[in-house]
Amino acid sequence: MADQTRIPMFPLTIFPLPGEMVPLHIFEPRYRQLLLDAEERDISFGIYFNHTRNTEKLGSLVKLESIIKRYDGGESDIIVKCQDLFRMETLFRKFKEKLYPGGEVEFLQVDLQEPVSSKLQSEFEDFMRLLKITKLPSPCSVFHVANELGFDFEDRLKFVLSEHDKKEIFLSSHLKFQKHLLTEVEKAKDVFHLN
Questions:
Q1: What is residue 156's three-state secondary structure?
Q2: In 10 A of CB 68, how many CB atoms?
Q3: 113 is a domain residue
Q4: What is the reported pLDDT for 191?
Q5: CA distance 188 to 173
Q6: Please, which residues bridge with residue 66 across strands?
Q7: Greatest extent of the chain over all pairs of C-alpha atoms, in Å
Q8: 124 with 177, same domain?
């Protein structure tokens, strides 16, 4: 059995991937307390993907990036960034003496620096050029590619649970489909003119 760690937990129906930035609106007192701890003590916390399809009990380890807005009533709009993924063993109603939940987790230890193959890198660069984006992370990992494809929950789970070489095949297939769609949209612009 791998090492387990107890961390603060925020169950939500979202599943951020490593490197992804996610906006959150914090309003419940227990999560306002979690935000205060994240801000003052610079702690990371888990977002457990609370969905029936999540049979593997996966979640995302996130860290506070910035507080966008604070409201008079104590609510906040924040941005968090996913650092790693985990498999949750146990969810606790309270984390230590805090109001917010906690969880016993095993980290997947995702490597955001492991580069993709040159073939996938080339396909990804072609796709990003169609989006008119030229500045890319270096090296580019499978998670950098996945974050640009806007996967739904099911595709995110399939992707994460795939072996590394299958991840590249999965991404390549989605890149080809998205490039096809973008090309067809450009062709349609030449055919249809708006008044």
A1: helix
A2: 12
A3: no
A4: 60
A5: 23
A6: 79
A7: 65
A8: yes
- Write out the residue range of the structural domain in which residue 185 sits: 118-191
SS3 breakdown of the chain: % helix, strand, coil, rounded to 5?
35, 30, 35
User: How many separate helices (H) and strands (E) can be counted in the chain?
Assistant: 5, 6
E strand segments, the chain: 5-8, 21-26, 44-48, 58-70, 76-92, 102-107
Half-sphere exposure of 3 (CA within 13 A, CB side): 4
> Which CATH number do you get for residue 93?
2.30.130.40
Rounded-to-integer distance, Cα 84 and Cα 109, Å? 6
Q: For residue 137, what pLDDT is reported?
A: 77
The SS3 call for residue 109 is coil
Rounded to 5 degrees, what are φ and ψ at 194? -85, 140
Residue 144 identity (one-letter amino acid):
H
pLDDT for position 184: 78
CB 103 within 8 A of CB 90: yes
Whole-structure pTM value:
0.88
**10-residue averages of pLDDT along the chain (195 residues):** 86 96 97 96 96 96 97 96 97 95 96 89 92 84 94 95 92 93 74 58
Q: Are residues 103 and 9 in the same domain?
A: yes
Confirm if 101 and 95 have CB atoms less than 8 A apart: yes
Total domain count for the chain?
A: 2
